[in-house]
Amino acid sequence: MKIAAFFSGSGGLDLGFELAGHKVIWANEYDKTIWKTYESNHQSTILDRRSIIDINSEDVPDCEGIIGGPPCQSWSEAGALRGINDHRGQLFFDFIRMIRSKRPLFFLAENVSGMLASRNSEALNQIKQLFIDSGYKLSFKLLNASDYGVPQDRERVFFVGFRTDLNKTFEFPQAFESKLSLRDSIFDLKDNALAASGAKTIGNLCEVPNHEYLSGSFSTMFMSRNRVRSWDEQSFTIQAGGRHCPIHPQAPKMIRLGKDEHIFKPGEEHLYRRLTVREAARVQTYPDSFIFHYENVLDGYKMVGNSVPVKLAKVLAESIILQLK
After folding, report:
1. Cα–Cα distance for residue pair 156/239, rounded to 1 Å
2. What confidence score (pLDDT) does residue 80 get?
3. What is the Cα–Cα distance from 69 to 72, expressed in whole angstroms?
4. Which residues touch 160 (CB under 8 Å, ≥6 apart)?
5. Residues taking part in catalysis
């Protein structure tokens, strides 16, 4: 099916849909630090670089599906939880505007679990009703990516709608019977990581593309709890901020001194480093052939952390195809 994608970022969601057999013919991304990465990895997709608020529906080609992840900072549990009162939260309305105008067979939207916070309940109900009023049977669920072949605990909410005239309601796929671990995904990369000097990238010097990590100190907020998962566990959530990237599983679990206070195990401090951009991308189930382009390593972490895991996107996209058939 032909897909139009909004808020694409580097294109994890888009890639998952492509791998499932859809064709992303048009995409939209406003952040200029992402454009080179998107266009070099999605060469058959037209990229519109404008903000969605400046795009008329006539500018978007006819399509069978619309997908996207409207910006999540205003809903995030780590942020201010301003939700729909933040202009970024209001971009959800522009996403719905496109759906109402283009009338695709289906849509899929992804956002952070912070949308479920009690203070956001009224806004969330409003968004759900707008999807329904737009002529779609809505399915809504909180999913953990680790249940679908992703080696990471990552909870996100998904909205999927089938156009009402199809007389179908999307059923979310069942969780897989087994889970992948950090050992399954990044063990082979453990020996050849390079430390970036501050935030300046050295990615072109890496034997494996993007296999560099942000060096430097860790904030008191970061040190407030354990940030290490072992090889046989799933990763903590890969975040968009590189300074909060999980610690590599070669390190021992951090030692708790008191409430909101942890330290690295004495004598083994040298083992504590952040995951590299490539390791984080592996955890997000990007293939190594997907190259991230950036001048600042923090932009690399941002692109990876803001993505929908590719394998989760693929599972959902395959399920949409099967159910619409």
Report:
1. 12
2. 46
3. 8
4. 106, 107, 108, 109, 138, 139, 140, 170, 172, 316, 320
5. 72
27 and 49 in contact (C-beta within 8 Å)? Answer: no
Torsion angles phi and psi, residue 277, rounded to 5:
-60, -40
- The whole-number pLDDT of residue 199 equals 67
- Range(s) within the chain of domains with CATH label 3.90.120.10: 182-304
Q: pTM for the complete prediction?
A: 0.93
- CATH top-level class for 182-304? alpha beta
**Where do you find CATH 3.40.50.150 in the chain?**
2-175+309-324
Q: Kindly report, residue by residue over 97-116, the tens digit of the pLDDT.
A: 999 999 999 999 999 988 88
Does CATH place domain 2-175+309-324 in 3.40.50.150? yes
